[in-house]
Amino acid sequence: xxxxxxxxxxxxxxxxxxxxxxxxxxxxxxxxxxxxxxxxxxxxxxxxxxxxxxxxxxxxxxxxxxxxxxxxxxxxxxxxxxxxxxxxxxxxxxxxxxxxxxxxx
Length: 105
Prior knowledge:
It is built from one helix and nine strands. Strand 2 (13-18) and strand 3 (23-27) form a beta hairpin. By secondary structure, the chain is mostly beta strands. The protein has one helix at 61-66; strands at 2-7, 13-18, 23-27, 40-42, 49-50, 57-59, 75-77, 85-88, 101-104.
């Protein structure tokens, strides 16, 4: 749960702050800003409160990949120095509502 801070104009990334204060950057693919928004469809806007399981951005992985871009999607805790532990709970394909990170103050 948290607040969407910024949806990048091209729809390929967003930043949010969780209810616990973790600042998250989600970036779909590598160098995908070069697609200029093609294949990305944001479903949230700046300042919007979201809950776990809400749809943030939909995108066409097949088209992104076919255009020559890796589809690895990093999720970065930008204020990681404020936490004693950050644990990755899963990787690979993630299901809706599945916990993927644990941050401990």
